Every structure is written in structure tokens, then in C-alpha cells.
Amino acid sequence: MNSAATATTQGDKSIGVEVIFQFLLKELQQSTKATEKNCRSVSLRIAGEVLRICNESKRIQASGEIESSAMTLARHRLQQCLRYYQLGSNRGRVELHSTLSAIIYRYINPPQKQLSYQGRLTIIEDFLQSFYLEALNAFRRENQQETTYRPQSLLELAEYMAFTERYGKRRIPLPGRQQQLIILRAQTFSQQQPPETSIDIEKASEGSSGEFDGSWEEPAIQQLRSAMAMQPEPELEEDTLRSVVITELMDYLEQRQQSDCADYFSLRLQDLSAPEIESILGLTPRQRDYLQQRFKYHLIRFALLHRWELVHEWLEVSLPTNLGLTPHQWQVYTAKLDDQHRCLLDLKQQGEPDEIIAKTLDLSMAQLQKRWFKILEQAWEIRNSLVSGSSASTHEY
User: Fold this and answer.
1) How many Å apart are CA 238 and CA 244, to the nearest integer?
2) Which of 98, 150, 228, 330 pairs with 356 at a CA distance of 20 to 30 A?
3) Bridge partners (DSSP) listed for residue 196
4) Cα–Cα distance between 216 and 236 in angstroms, integer?
């Protein structure tokens, strides 16, 4: 191992970096098909990062539990890397792209322009390509790699993707608050780049991060992009549907001027705790609870009315599968519907358009939507009670 592996923390408290390195090496050799050399290099980099964080963290230094904190951090880094390794190159790229897109979605909107859904996705794609380059350069710099380093194996690619996700989520201290690095980059990018201009990454970086030292035409970047997309395994339909549901829900919230709900949703997607969300959004627990309830209201409207077909297809509880109910549940459920609701359900399952259904049942479109919402809501409650064991549920789509 290099000198980083034998370094010590501040004071007399030393971290068993050799122990951490051996732990990481053993786990990677057991959990991957990478070569021993590959596993060693990745283990060494993770162990070095753990040491650096423990050295620089005042909280860890003051805790008196330095070795325990170091091992916990090492396990966390290992799990992130293995997660992307197990997803594979293509699905890993989709997952990373989806995660980062959800964080920045509402921040990608050039001033005085109302972008369409597709237009915003195009800008996000341009921005993320530049951000991947920035993350690669940060990875090289922080791990003391050559400027020509690039991920070549699946394990190295997984290591890079896990690093990129963490890099984007880093908290940058600002006056009175903290903000994630990728959001700050996205805001700067959105303000400086008109959507109709071809994005030159080198120029874009000059006005935002100042951390790029490569070029879009650099062979390493071209190979990196190819590696992230070049795998025989197909993109799963559920990944695509998940991305569409997330982006359309974001768009739905924006259209209804619920930007605070969009912020809340973006943070929820990152599995942040309630205190973390309150800190980032500057809310009291009571204000956060109120925002959560308002978000749930719009979430239910989106899932059971606005885009019910898309959401139910994603959850695999569509009409052809009897809304996800078991045969017994379906029998009990339909028996409780009145004649008009049962007829509405039958016509929906037959694929009749809403205009024909409304005319058949002598309903206005508003009345039809209201009754259909009620039908879906009742089925939703039955599905949730099956999972939670109660008639009431706080399950969210």
C-alpha cells in the first residue's frame, strides 16, 4: 500500500487503514468478478478517501470513535460501489442519470423561458454531460490519479458512478443555508446557457465550476461516455417508466405553481430524513409537515386522476390486472360498487374513450372524472391495506 494507508489522524489516534483496506479487498473479491489488481486499486482509493474524511472531519475527531466511524464510512462507500456494479453499466447509467435529473429538474429553466417537458430534458442532458466531466476531473484530483485516468473495467466504472452521485450531493455552505453542489451548478448553467445554443462544455465550465481541465473531444471522455452506454444488457421498462413518472410529476407540480412541493419531492427522492429536509428548505417541523401533507394531496391527484394510466402501468396494477387486486379482493371490491360505478369500470376495462363513457352514463366529463377517481381510490386503499394490515394507509405512489 502507499503512504496514505499508513497515515494517522490528528493527535495520537490512528486509524487501522490496513484493516479497512483488507476488509474492502476481501469484499470486492467475493462480490465481483474483477481482477485482484483491479480490486486492490479500488480498495486502496476507498481506504484513502475514508482516511482523508476522518482526518478532516471535526465531528469524527471529537467523537472518540474514529476507527468505528472509519469502518462505517468504508462499508457505506463499498455498498454504493457494489450497487452500481450489480446494476451493470447500462442500468447503472440509467439509475445515476435518473437520480441526478430528479434533483436538478426544477432548477433547469433558463430565465424568462417556459420550457416544454421535452425541452427541459434536452437541457438536462446537456448539463449532465458537462457534470460527468467535472466529476471525472474531481475523481482524478481527489484520488491523485493521472489526468489521463479513465474507468476501464466495470468495477472502476461503478466506483466512478458512485463517486459522481456523492459528488453531486455534496453540501456547499452558503449564508444561512446549505445547498447541494449539483443544484448550484445547474442554476449557473441554466442562467448562462440559452437552450437554442449548442453547449460547449469547456466554455460552460468557465462561468460555473472552474474545475474542468479536459475537453469534450478528449479521448478519455469519449471512451467514458461510450463505456457508460455500451453494454448488451437492455434498459428495463420499469427504469424508463420510473423516470417518466418522476419527470411528469415534477412538471405537474411546476404547472400548478407548487415549486415548494417539487423541492420537497426532489429531497424525498434522495431518502433524506425529515430534519435534513427541514434544514435544507429552512422549515420548522410543523411547516415541513404541512408541506408534506400538501405534497401528498397533489401526489394523489396526479396518481389517481391526472396520469393514472401511467402510474398504474408503472406499479403493474393496471386495468388488465384488475387494478392489482387478487381474484377474491376483486370480487369483494366490485360487489361493493353501485351499478353506475360498476358500469363505468366495465367500460374502462373495455377500452371505451371517456367521451363515449360519459355519454353512455349521462355524465359530464367532470362528473366522470370524479367517479373514476373514487373507483381508483377504493382499489388503492384495498391494495395498501393488504400490505400494511390496516384499512388506512400512508403509502405513497
Assistant:
1) 10
2) 330
3) none
4) 29
Q: What does the block give as the cell for 387?
A: 400490505
**H or E element in which residue 39 lies:** helix 36-56
All cell numbers assigned to 360: 353512455
Closest CA to 33 of 80, 82, 76: 82
Nearest Cα residue to 176 out of 274, 261, 279, 275: 279
> Rounded to the nearest 5°, which phi and psi values hold at 115?
-75, 150
pLDDT digits (tens, 9 = 90+) for 121-139: 778 888 898 899 899 999 9
Q: Are 95 and 102 in contact (CB under 8 A)?
A: no
Q: Would residue 114 be called left, alpha or beta, if left means φ above 0 and alpha means ψ between -120 and 50 degrees?
A: beta
- Amino acid making up residue 246: I
Residues 128, 189: contact at Cβ < 8 Å? no
Average pLDDT, the chain: 75
Q: Are 93 and 161 in contact (CB under 8 A)?
A: yes
Contacts of 327 (CB under 8 A, 6+ apart): none
Of 80-89, 204-213, 270-279, 336-345, the least confident: 204-213
DSSP per residue over 52-113, as a string?
Answer: HHHHH-HHHHHHS-HHHHHHHHHHHHHHHHHHHHHHHHHHHHHHHHHHHHHHHGGG---TT-
What is the identity of the amino acid at 177?
A: R
Q: State the Cα–Cα distance between residues 322 and 397, nearest whole angstrom.
A: 17
The pLDDT score that the predictor gives to residue 337 is 81
Rounded CA-CA distance 160/38 in Å is 13
Please state, for a pLDDT cut of 70, what percent of the chain lies above it. Answer: 75
Cβ count within 10 A of residue 296: 13
Question: What global pTM score does this model have?
Answer: 0.53
Query: What is d(CA 167, CA 80) in angstroms, rounded to the nearest whole number?
Result: 13
Grid cell listed for 370? 370524479
Report helix, strand or coil for 180: strand
| Torsion of Cα atoms, 261 then 264 then 269 then 270, to 10° | 160
